[in-house]
Every structure is written in structure tokens, then in C-alpha cells.
Amino acid sequence: MIGLGTYAYFWQHAEGLSLVGAFEDTRAQRVDLFQICDYAPLEQMTDAELRDAASAARDTGLTIELGTKGIEPERLERFLTLAEIFDARVVRSMLYGPESRPSLDDARRTLADAMPAYEAAGVSLALETYEQVPTRDIVGLIDTVGSDALGVCLDPANVVAQLESPRECVRETSRLVKNVHVKDFAFARQDGWVGFTYSGARMGEGLHDYGQLLDVVRPRERGINEVVEHWLPWQTDAETTIRTERDWTRATLEYLRSTL
């Protein structure tokens, strides 16, 4: 299933778009999935506000996924509760959170303790590939824990900062993928030719070989959701930035639909 996420609405949320407003816009673009990922207000909502948001998603006809950062036991437990409220079947996280940077041994013990509850609830925990932890370590950790409910949120763009190849990251994680983050990316020379900026790009105009990901991971055959997000720098003013953000979303949806 193709989806949009809060990172596709990053600047729109910053300018006041509500979560329910993003739900409504997602459905207006004929998209059936929304990933609430690293959306700070979610963790500040009361139980009543959470139920209202979940009800709005259901009324709008959306399937919901969730995303957070960190694997502290209380965080994993809390997001499993949120998954129940939103009927979510995927929770994306990262090994390192705002309050902790566990060793691989500590992470293994924490995840081994947490996964039986996720398995019982029918919820997958997807650890994102990113620059702070080598992909081989994430793969090794998942294999060691040995839970069918534990896998990878594949984001090949992130690993470039670890000097890893996005294509190799796709190959290395393919058998473990539970979720895909979809965005293009590119390098651009800085003024004066004194370095590069690594940032987002309009889908199809950057370096991402998404066709390779489709061939290797086969997300559509395996029922793996593909969630659109962006790395869009500020574009001089809010109106221009939001217009560009919406254009990038349209371009990415058009690309994904063209590959179905």
C-alpha cells in the first residue's frame, strides 16, 4: 500500500496544519495509508484526544502506522498501546532515542523482552536504517533477537552519511523489510565549490534507484507499505516551501503509481 506520512507534511505541520487536516488531505489525494512518525504532539495528547484522532482516521478511511525514536521499554510499551488505539500494525523506531543510546547487547535484551507483546498484538516493530548505526549491526541485531515481528524500516537515503551504499543497504536488508520510506535525494555543490549539500530531491530527479529497491525488496508482492516523505530544505518563504512540498508529494505519488 502507498502511504503518506508526517514527514511529507513537515512544513505544513510547522505552519499549523493539524493531524486531522493531514488525514483529510491524504484521502483527497486518493491515498489510503498515513504514518504518524516522529509527530511530537501525539505524545502530548490526552486519551480522549487520541481516541478522537483515531476515530477521525477511521472515518476518513485511513490505515494508520506509527513512528517513534528509541527502544526504551516504556516507549515500546506506550507505542504498542497507541497501536491498539489506532489499529496500527506497524510501529517504526530507531535504536537511539532522545534519551538513550543503548549498546547492541542492551538493545538485544530490551527487544527480546519487548517482542512477545508485539507478536501477541500482531504488530511489527520496524527499526529504521540510518547513519548512527551501521546497517550490518541492525541486521545482526534483528537476526539475533529472532522475532518474526521485528524487522527493518528501509530508508536507503539515511545510510549515505555512514558512507554506505544505498543499493547495498537495500540488498542487505531486503529479507527483513517491514516498511519502506520513499524519498529521492541528491548532492549539490555549495556556493564557491567548497563542498556539497546532501538533501532531498523531487522524485525522479535525484540519485535514488527506486527501481532497484522494487526489484530486490518486492514490497507489493510481500504486502510491505511504501510511505512517502521528503527532505525538503526551506525555500525562502512559507508559501513557496509548502507549494514545493505539495509538488514533491504529487510527483512521488505519480511515480509510485506508474510502477504499480
UniProtKB/TrEMBL annotation:
<dbReference type="InterPro" id="IPR050312">
    <property type="entry name" value="IolE/XylAMocC-like"/>
</dbReference>
<keyword id="KW-0119">Carbohydrate metabolism</keyword>
<feature type="domain" description="Xylose isomerase-like TIM barrel">
    <location>
        <begin position="44"/>
        <end position="251"/>
    </location>
</feature>
<dbReference type="InterPro" id="IPR036237">
    <property type="entry name" value="Xyl_isomerase-like_sf"/>
</dbReference>
<dbReference type="InterPro" id="IPR013022">
    <property type="entry name" value="Xyl_isomerase-like_TIM-brl"/>
</dbReference>
<protein>
    <submittedName>
        <fullName>Sugar phosphate isomerase/epimerase</fullName>
    </submittedName>
</protein>
<keyword id="KW-0413">Isomerase</keyword>
<dbReference type="Pfam" id="PF01261">
    <property type="entry name" value="AP_endonuc_2"/>
</dbReference>
<dbReference type="GO" id="GO:0016853">
    <property type="term" value="F:isomerase activity"/>
</dbReference>
